[in-house]
Write a structure and sequence with these properties.
79% helix; 139 residues; 6 helices; mainly alpha
């Protein structure tokens, strides 16, 4: 049974961990793909040259869900709302760029990643309403 009273910030942080783990395992599955390691060693993957700049962009994009695990717990509700929505939009765009070269296991993991991001949007959108409720309760 799902616990009814989970702190929204804790749930957001947990969902970002869920997204991150799905991304990691989706990437790990690529290592088992026949010919992938050989292709990687050439410096070209799916026809794209792997450069230092591309690796940096990949690192920045990977840092988004990692950072959101922390920020979801420490930001105030208003900042939390917009950070989660912004990060979610960026991640959905990133997932969208992977669709043309996606195989079955990529699509499998992306379904869960997208579902989690949509859940993050729903929770984050309600954070300011939660803030107003808490403020009224304090007065």
């Amino acid at each position: 049974m799902i616990k009814n009273k989970i702190n929204p910030q804790t749930l957001l942080s947990t969902l970002w961990i869920f997204v991150l783990l799905n991304i990691v395992f989706r990437d790990l599955h690529q290592l088992g793909k026949i010919g992938f390691l050989e292709e990687l060693m050439t410096g070209m993957v799916n026809g794209i040259k792997i450069t230092e700049e591309l690796a940096l962009i990949g690192g920045i994009l990977a840092e988004i869900p990692i950072l959101m695990v922390l920020l979801s717990r420490i930001l105030n509700l208003k900042a939390n709302k917009w950070a989660n929505i912004s990060a979610g939009i960026i991640m959905l765009v990133v997932f969208g760029t992977a669709v043309p070269s996606a195989d079955m296991d990529d699509v499998f993991h992306m379904v869960f990643e997208v579902a989690a991001i949509l859940w993050i949007f729903r929770i984050a959108w309600k954070l300011t309403a939660l803030n107003k409720t808490q403020t009224q309760a304090q007065n």
